[in-house]
Specification:
Elements lengths: L6 H9 L10 E2 L2 E8 L6 H20 L3 E3 L2 E11 L4 H13 L6 E2 L4 H13 L4 E3 L15 E3 L9 H8 L9 E6 L3 H17 L2 E7 L8 H10 L3 E5 L1 H14 L6 E4 L2 H4 L1 H4 L8 E4 L8 E2 L3 E2 H11 L8 H20 L4 H9 L2 E4 L2 E4 L12 E5 L5 E4 L14
Parallel strand pairs: 2-4, 5-6, 6-7, 8-9, 8-10, 10-11
Antiparallel strand pairs: 1-2, 3-4, 12-17, 13-14, 15-16, 17-18
Helix pairs in contact: 2-12, 3-4, 5-6, 12-13
Length: 403
């Protein structure tokens, strides 16, 4: 049932000084958030990064006393279902969470495609969703009132790489560009931002390929690149596509002066393919050296250290985990600002949030996207570590690879 059906009852209870919550998914002292998440299928790697980010934030918030509503402290928990990286399955599970499990507050799935499938469901039932992994700008042109995203939108991801390539020469129109993109909504929006920049500088696109659906092979593109010798290669195919690109660049001994791709960190290309990935430019939503902080998680470096202590298998923490934690933090702030569990009151509290966090600033536009945080670009060095790149002068260019 929807919380607002009980709003009058809740108000009466509060007036009597009773802090109990009249909500189907606030039971006892626990607030349950719901999420359909990719734990199997092609998005499983990033789905796990996301789940761990959610769970780490829940742990930290609960250890710090939880969420205060109506003078009572509540713990957070998350109910998950595996959407198998399949949009139709994700939509089905979102409806199950809402209709059968009584979930009234949602955390997003992984990827823009999955978010695109689930957003209409949460919107239909008036269930607020704070998501951390769906960056497609098309999500925020649909007029949704219950969808909010903490991350920067997708058209910003790789456009900076084109700016940096343009800064490398007195004649940007002479630069030859090769593109290889997955056909999902996120990658198509990344591509749109890149193409806008290419057109702005008058660059030449000499390869414009779509990656195969299973993201297991990009040899066709790389064979053409070897023959045509582009100055820059741009790739977007989530973590599986990044891993495939790095592996086949290594196998085929591809030497291109500048290579930029999404999901480098999530795919751990710097660890698995250290020679091929040397010099890769990798967009990131977040860096642990960011000079931002908050009262719950401390600085970006402190969140990073805490997360790595909880998950020591990470040598470099992917930004997907950081932004997932930020999404949970938004929920805590919204519940406390609303001082209520009424869905529309909480939704309005989310919409009004303006906060600095370890992840960066968060402020939502009327369309639900975060308008307070930029993208960042990092470059993989010869020692397989990342360096923050803010201008062309910060880059190692041309890319140096021993083939």
């Amino acid at each position: 049932m929807k919380t607002r059906r009980y709003a009058a009852a809740f108000g009466a209870m509060m007036a009597m000084g009773i802090a109990g919550a009249a909500s189907a998914n606030v039971v006892g002292d626990t607030i349950t958030l719901g999420s359909s998440i990719s734990l199997t299928g092609k998005y499983a790697t990033n789905g796990l990064h996301t789940q761990r980010g959610y769970d780490y934030a829940v742990q930290v918030i609960n250890d710090a006393g939880g969420v205060s509503v109506g003078g009572k402290s509540y713990k957070l928990s998350v109910k998950y279902y595996d959407d198998e990286s399949t949009p139709a399955r994700g939509a089905q599970l979102a409806e199950r969470l809402i209709q059968q499990d009584g979930i009234e507050y949602m955390l997003g799935p992984y990827s823009s495609g999955m978010t695109k499938a689930i957003a209409p469901v949460s919107e239909k039932f008036g269930v607020p969703m704070v998501e951390a992994e769906g960056a497609s700008r098309s999500l925020f042109t649909q007029g949704y009132k219950y969808l909010f995203a903490v991350l920067s939108t997708s058209e910003q991801y790789l456009a900076t790489a084109i700016d940096m390539a343009a800064a490398s020469t007195d004649d940007p129109s002479s630069i030859k560009v090769a593109l290889a993109f997955e056909g999902d909504p996120f990658s198509m929006d990344v591509r749109a931002g890149v193409v806008d920049k290419i057109n702005e500088y008058g660059m030449k696109t000499i390869i414009d390929d779509q990656l195969p659906a299973d993201l297991s092979d990009m040899s066709t593109t790389l064979t053409k690149a070897k023959a045509l010798r582009p100055d820059i290669l741009i790739v977007s195919g989530h973590s599986k596509g990044a891993a495939t690109a790095a592996r086949q660049i290594d196998e085929m001994k591809i030497s291109i002066p500048m290579i930029a791709m999404t999901h480098c960190e999530a795919a751990k290309v710097q660890e698995k393919f250290p020679n091929a990935s040397n010099g890769f430019l990798c967009p990131t939503q977040w860096v642990e050296t960011l000079s931002k902080s908050d009262a719950m998680f401390g600085t970006a470096a402190e969140w990073n250290a805490g997360f790595k202590a909880a998950h020591p298998s990470y040598s470099s923490v992917p930004y997907q985990s950081a932004q997932a934690s930020a999404a949970v933090y938004v929920w805590k702030e919204a519940f406390e600002a609303a001082n209520s569990f009424d869905q529309d009151a909480v939704r309005d509290a989310i919409a009004a949030i303006e906060m600095e966090t370890f992840y960066g600033d968060i402020k939502f536009s009327e369309n639900g996207n975060n308008i307070a945080k930029p993208m960042f670009m990092r470059q993989i060095g010869a020692d397989s570590t990342y360096s923050l790149v803010e201008t062309f002068e910060d880059m190692v260019f041309p890319r140096k690879v021993d083939y």
